[in-house]
Amino acid sequence: MATREVKAGDLRFAYESYGDGAEIFVLIHGWCSVRNFWGPVLADFAALGTCHNLDLVGHHPATLPAHVHDFDLVKVASMQAAAIKQIVGKKKVTVVGHSTGGLVALALGILHPGLVKRVVAIGPVVHGPVRGPLGFAKDLYKLNLHAALHLPFAFIRSLPDAFKNIFETGVHDSKAFFRRRDADKYVRAYREQMLNISPEVMGAWLTIIDKADLRPALTGSLLPTLFITGAHDRVVDPGQAREIARKMPNAAYHEYAASGHIPILEEEVECFANLKLWLQCH
């Protein structure tokens, strides 16, 4: 599928479109991720309607915003919304986001109700802070030690198998995942795209995630939302989504017992069967 570009203000976003149904889906990948993340399930989404696979702000090949160091979730949601409007005009969309893309999808649903019809948040971040190794990376960024953020990328470039090993931490059963016929090709393509991302942008996004907290805005919200999580997610605590789903009257929460951070790939058939049922009701 041909890649297209859209401009929103001074920013350029890349996207691809699939399907031609009446329902419109916008896919947003996560932090340190790429549009290719959705590759194995694009046909599933295209079967549901028109699907636009869009860059997350600042992620290659999307242009790097000026003053990225001053960004917060409200600002990046506004930029993402402007890009979506350039693609769909005045139509309303279902935003599907994974991980940090889920955080952005939820923010879009709250801040731009005229654009967003409903949200599907997969393994989403709901609130900060960022802890562990990523918390350390965030602190390096705040201290302007940006050169240190290039080290993980240099490591992945020098050892091609390193990214596969890192990717395996995101799934619950790596052996089962890599039995997929498309798994090795998918991970290789993912790695090549990811190496184009600016480490400085990754650091800036860590500060955005660290300061984010959607719980006050989502509590009591009538936004139709489907939360999809994996019971064995070691990247984002599924408790974040589980907790807030209980406080949203129109939210559903699906937790997949055999999945980690990527249930939509790990239990693809079950996820899409349940997604279709939810869409029929919302």
Automatic annotation (TrEMBL):
The protein's UniProt keywords, in alphabetical order, are: Hydrolase
Q: GO cellular component terms?
A: membrane
Sample GO molecular function, one term: hydrolase activity
Q: Which InterPro entries match?
A: AB_hydrolase_1 (IPR000073), AB_hydrolase_fold (IPR029058), AB_hydrolase_sf (IPR050266)
The answer to keyword Transferase applying to this record is: no
Q: Provide the AB hydrolase-1 domain boundaries.
A: 24-267
Q: What is this protein called?
A: Alpha/beta hydrolase fold containing protein
Q: Which organism is it from?
A: Turneriella parva (strain ATCC BAA-1111 / DSM 21527 / NCTC 11395 / H) (Leptospira parva)
